[in-house]
Fold this sequence. Notes:
This protein has 345 residues and is of the alpha+beta class. The chain is 29% helix and 25% strand. It has 2 domains: 2-188, Thiolase/Chalcone synthase (Peroxisomal Thiolase, Chain A, domain 1), CATH 3.40.47.10; 202-344, 3-Layer(aba) Sandwich (Peroxisomal Thiolase, Chain A, domain 1), CATH 3.40.47.10. A 5-stranded mixed beta sheet has the order 4-10-9-7-8, with helices on both faces.
Amino acid sequence: MTQGPAGFTMGATHWEAALIVPRILSTGFYVPAKILTNDELATRVETSDEWIFSHTGIRTRRLAADDQATSDLAIEAGRKALERAHLDPKDVDLILVATSTPDFLGFPSTASLVQNGLGAVNAGAMDLSAACTGFIYALETARTFVVSGAARFVLVIGAEVFSRIVDWNDRNTCILFGDGAGAVLVGPSSPELPEPWFAPSLLRSDGSGGSCLLRPAGGTRKPVPERPSELAVAMDGKRVYLFAVTVVKDSILEIITKNGLTLEQIDWVVPHQANYRIVAAAAQRLGLPLERFYLNMERFANTSGATIPLALAEMDEAGLLKRNQVIVTVGFGAGLAWGANLFRW
Length: 345
Ligand code: UT7
């Protein structure tokens, strides 16, 4: 063995990484101040608080101010996570922003804007696009960077301003979404913490279902929309619903089974907050009490790539997450893509 770059040793045939156990070191979240209630929505489209709540579990959502874009929300959430970890932004190695509503189409990346806003002058930055499953993918990316020693501190942010891409005249979709951001800082676990682990994540995709949930125009497939509504979210709600219930149940079972755990050993499931009924149906099929699922869609609705980090940060702030608890996150959405993370707090 010869000594290679920091943290690596030269094996017989390849560079072998020093395996580092990662942990979520801190969290932060930000939601805009403006609250839009179901009753207010009912003055714009033909709907009611009763219909929305009974079909989705949503009562209110937050809306970004006119001068706020996705990076503004992400910076607030990221700053809180760094402050809670007492980490100097200069020590961040990588910033990942999971978003489907970037400040700009294509470039610059929202992550670069966040890197600048935070003063993380030594960090690389990139966006990750996997719609509502984006945070699951981004957290796994952060985990592998830290495990390999390629990065020490990775700031993972899910941030969205969906209010700018929904058709406010389409009651099938506009009732579902909201704006917000959540962040987690991933880094090496401290040696004094007992038995840390962070399992490899479950990442899946079935692109044959791409038409279920998409923005039909504005990309290279159809740059010029025939109608302005083609720039907005279009969804086959029923198909997405059926897909979601199945993959929430299957993903939880698959990731715990692969890692030799049983349902009884899970302390918290933090699901994508799309619809209360999706979570309740999956919980029932699993035979797992609904109390073990953290739910906040009643207040924040579906903030797409932000729902899971926002929920984790809210739980953290409320003191619900205790050292050594076993947490499963599960995400699903456009792509179709889905996946799950499994780690010890
Ligand atoms: O991050 C992933 C994002 N997407 C999702 O998770 C969406 C998954 N799907 C769902 O959550 C549900 O399918 C919805 C909440 C979108 C819809 O609930 P549903 O129970 O599947 O309703 P539906 O689409 O079967 O509609 C039932 C009726 C229809 O009327 P008719 O055709 O029976 O006369 C709709 O036109 O409800 C009507 N409807 C509404 N009525 C009042 C649809 N949206 C509304 C509304 N207010 N907002």
